[in-house]
From TrEMBL:
Keywords: Hydrolase. It comes from the Bacteria. Residues 6-302 form the Inosine/uridine-preferring nucleoside hydrolase domain. GO terms for molecular function: hydrolase activity, hydrolyzing N-glycosyl compounds. The keyword Hydrolase applies. Gene3D superfamilies: Ribonucleoside hydrolase-like. This is Nucleoside hydrolase.
Amino acid sequence: MTVPFILDTDTAQDDCVALIAGLLDPDADLRAITMVAGNVGFDKQVRNAHLTLNVCGRLGTVPIHLGCRQPMVVPWVSAENVHGDGSGGLDMDFAGTATEDEHAVDALIRLTAQEPGELSIVAIGPLTNIAMAAVKDPAFVRNVKRLVIMGGSNNGRGNITAAAEFNFYVDPHAARVVFEAGFADIVVVPWAPLTLQDAVFSREQLADIDRLGTSLSRFFLTVCGPTLAFDESVGIPGTTHPDSLSVGVLLHPELALASAQYHVAVETESELTRGYSAMSWGVHGLEPNATVVERADGPAFHTWITGFLATSTEPNRPFHGWDS
Ligand SMILES: [Ca+2]
């Protein structure tokens, strides 16, 4: 049985890997890509999604809906210092690549309403589109099967500030709306400690990927390369893959080795701790509103990703900025 879902993304680096998994995993039924303001410039993100579809030979096969171009309340903050253009300078001829006319928020509402309780969403960018859909149509909240969110830290370190992980920092109001909306099944894949423990690919593992010698392995290294230098400069020994892990825990729940019920609340007021996620573990008298993944099967996750990268694909168009 395949898992039908929508990928809500700010496509750059590991978002591209998440998209590859969503396109190539035989258990995945990716219905739509919805784009949200996040990592890099909005139009660059759309290009990165097309580049990823291209390397999989799937250009034009999954609709891309353009969503919110800025957070709900605060100005957009980019992560271009970390991600560059988000695809390591890759380019191709984009002539004729299309996106849908329908706005991402409307697509999220419509697609989930067509099959109430059947479609899941993996949200791997700021939560603006998801919050806006919940505000626009309360039925959306009931119609979503499972909402997997990459965001926050489990009372741990942030990555954009000491307190906050990027996705929740960029649109803390949206994150707050989503956790207060009443979704029946939210699964959170946090930055720390989970991603840093179980979803980092070491230089050695990246060298193994290089030896695969496929279009996909090359694409992966080109796209993820720019974050390696940044990650090492901040003491992380490899590339980080929380977005693809989020797709992984939807498609293969056994990748989550430990999870627990938490009440997740997101700070919106404080300048110092904007976007901080307070995850209460059941001793403070608060109703749980999410399942937080605490430990993942790192080796199985790595094997799952490299399985795709070993696959031979025929890109629809040649890449430029790809040295042979
Ligand atoms: Ca992302």
